[in-house]
Every structure is written in C-alpha cells, then in structure tokens.
Description:
Helix content: 40-55%
Distance between the termini: 61 Å
Radius of gyration: 29 Å
Number of strands: 11
Order of helices and strands: HHHHHEHEEEHEEEHHEEHHHEHEHHH
Largest sheet: 5 strands, parallel
Number of helices: 16
Amino acid sequence: MIRSRLSYVRYYLRILTLLLPACAYFIAIKIRFGFNLFFPRSAPATLPSYWGIMLLTTIVWAIAAEEAGLWSTEQLYAPGKKSRRLLEALAFTYAVVMALGFLYRQASYSRLVIAISAAALFVLATIARIVFRVLLEVLRKAGRNEVRILMVGTDAFARRVTTSLTNGEVLPCKVVGFVHLPDQDVAVEGPIYEVNQIPNFSNGHSIDDVIIALPAGRLSDVQTIAPTLEKLCVPTRVVLDLGEGVGLRDRLIDLGGIHMLDLRPTLAETGPYLFEKRIFDIVFSLLIVLATLPASLLIAAMIKLTSPGPIFFIQERVGLNGRLFRMLKFRTMRVGNQEDGDTLWTCANDPRRTLVGAFLRKTNLDELPQFINVLKGDMSIVGPRPERPHFVEKFLQEFDRYNFRHTFKAGITGWAQVNGWRGDTSIAKRVEYDLYYLRNWSLTFDLQIITMTLLHMFNSKNAY
C-alpha cells in the first residue's frame, strides 16, 4: 500500500510537471502575439509553427526533470536546493533547445517567445510544486486514504520509526498496533500484541502494511517472524538502519539470487552517469574537435616551427578507479627530462616553457587534445582533474578521502578548477570542491561548470 500510494503521488506529479512546458508556451505566445505587449506592430505568428519546438522542449524538460528529481517526493519535501535544482533543469532544457534551434534553419522562432516561456515555466513549476505539496498536506490532515500499519517491534527504535511515519508529510499513516518480540523492551504507546496473536488479525482490522522496525542487532529475527506475517496477506517491509554513514539510496543489487548492498554507493554507477553523461561527452567533444580543427592545426604548426620536438605531450595520469591512462596535451615546454615533468609543478615564468607554450597554457588551449581522451573514454568533459601518479601517492598519505576523487572519470575541467583551485594551490580545498561535485553531480551541474569554464577560459588563475 505504501509503495502504491507513493507511485500514485509520483505519477500525478510527473504528469503535472510534463504539462508545464505546453502551458508556458501558450502563455508566451499569448503575451508576445495575442496581447501585443512588446511589439504591437508585429504580425502574429501562426500557432502551429510552435508545436515542434514545444514538443522538443517537453522532451528535453522530461530528461532534465528526471535528473533533477522534480517529481521525486523526497525532493518535493527537501529542506533546501529546490529552486536551484529547478533552475538547473531549466538552464539545461533551454540550452539544448537554443542549440538545436540554432542548427535547425527550416523554421524561425521568436527568441522573445522562448525567453518568456522559460520565465513562465519557472514560475509555473514553482507554483505547481507548492500547490501539490499543500494538497498533499490537506489530504494528510484530513486522514484521507490513511495507511493503517501494524508495527513489528516495541523498543525505542520502533518508537522512532512510528513517530517519523505518523508525522510524515507525504502519506497519512496510522499505526494500529505493535507486535512485541521476546526479550524486547516496550517503549511505544498503543495496542501491543504478542507474536502468537498475529494470526488473530483479519481483513476486518484493515491492515494495509506490516513494517518490521528492528535495530541492526536484531535483524536476524526477521527470518523467524516472516512466516507468521505471511498469514496477514498484506505487504511486509523492513526498516533498514545500518548505522551512521551507511546509506541505502536504492543500492540493493540482486546478482543471481545473491543480494548485496552498496555500503559506499557512487553516482558513477548510475544509469544517467553511464549513458546520458557519456552521450553528452561524445556529442560535445565531437563538436569541439570539429569546430577547433583549424585552430588545432595552426597550433600544431606553430609548435613544430618554434621548438624542436613532438607536437603532443603525453603523460600518465590517474583516472577512474585508480587506473592509469595516457593524457594528451599540446607540448608547451622544451624537450627535457620527462621525470621532472612527472614530479614538479609548473610555476609563474617557468623557464621550461616555450614562447608558444606560455600562450597556450595561459589560454588553456594546450588542453584541446584532451577531447580525444574524452572520445576514447579515458576522461569526461567535467570531473576531478587527473593527477600524476607521484602526487596521488603523496596526497593519499596526507589527505583523507582523497581517493574518492577516483570514483568518477577525470575531467578536462571541474568544480574545483572553475573556483580557482588548480595548479600549485591548496590540495585540501581542491578535494573539498571535488567531493562536493561528486555528491551533487547532474548534467545541469556539468553545464554550469562548462559555462563557467568558457567565461574564465582566457583569464584563468594559476595557469602557468
């Protein structure tokens, strides 16, 4: 019953969210052409011409909303970051729409209509989420469709679970009784039954769900009591609390009948990261490689003409899961001792740089070949910057959680870099920003970092 009720809530919220782009375009077209508030002399555009871009916006919005969790009940009641997630989804949606609209030349759409629709979508989404939450709260207080629960457990842990369920904001829940297990304290208030009294319950008692609320030390009792609970013919659920720092996050794996729980889950194993981020990396990298091909050929010629040696500088870096890969860069230094490059930071006015190299490093153009690493799958466009093996071994001894950086693919740019932590700067700060990115990754967050990178591309601090 609990799962079905939550599914209904998510279903209705999803439908409401997916209808919003159409409403936003209707408002935008009405304001732009129907009311003529901005350009009274302009001829009205025909409404059917906007069906295509409205459909495109809805499709991209559906992907962005799924990524941002806009129809997740957990996000609906989250204490913070709701507006930020909405803005990220909105930015990603309209960035894709504008990019595809630029490439599609067979129709001309009013940029003002698109801009108004974006603003309208933000307002509508905000209002819709508030109204939806208020409606759920009204239904909860009215006791409509109340979920009646039989709680297995009577100790302090069961009391805490009961309090959370009855005071929850999503579903109206009522605990109709508690089942006392042998050698268990009684810390709850309400009807208490012994295990041998469970078969006395019938459909007349209207029990919707059975919840087993036992502390981690007594989870072995589940196997003993489960056969008795089967007689109730209602869904049975177990509250899992494995202690502080061990979160489930739906990370249960069924591998041929072997059930495993990820004690340290990572977003890098999720579908969006494995597929959507990879598709985005490939498409974006191909566009960059093609767009910068003339500039890359010119840079290669300048390197070859002004300094003896190879065009590319190839260096081993530590990537995903600690694996080594060969990272490509345009060569910016004179050919010398390879070992020095593996163990020394570059600095201001570094004498090893060539004249062309100094310009390339300052403008970050030396990193253009790394898009080839992205296409090969060694790197991503956004992620923690890959470090040399020498420094990884050093930092592992000096900084806690440094190795968490390697649970994601290394990136050409990253959250730490766009905030100024690159090169010979505070490693502790860099780790802090990288871990923030790992905890909050989304495609819209990647888009934000890429935008910040482009804005600071030719004025990067600590780019020597």
